[in-house]
Amino acid sequence: MIKKIKEDTVKWGILGVGDVCEVKSAPAMQLIKNSDLVAVMRRNGAKAKDYAQRHRVPKWYDKAEDLIHDPDVNAIYIATPPNAHCELTAKAAEAGKPVYVEKPMARTLSECKQMISVCKKANVPLYVAYYRRMLPNFIKLKQLIESGIIGKVRLVKIELYKTVEPNIVANSEATTSSNWRINPKISGGGYFFDLAAHQLDYLDFVFGAIQSVNGYAGNQAGLYSAADIVTSHFTFKNGIQGVGSWCFSVDKKAVKDELTIIGSKGKLSIPFFGKPEIILEKSGQKRKEPFNFDLPKHIQQPLIQTIVDDLLGKGICPSTGDSAARTNWVMEEMTKNYYQ
Question: What is the distance between the alpha carbons of residues 337 and 340, in angstroms, rounded to a whole number?
Answer without folding.
Answer: 6
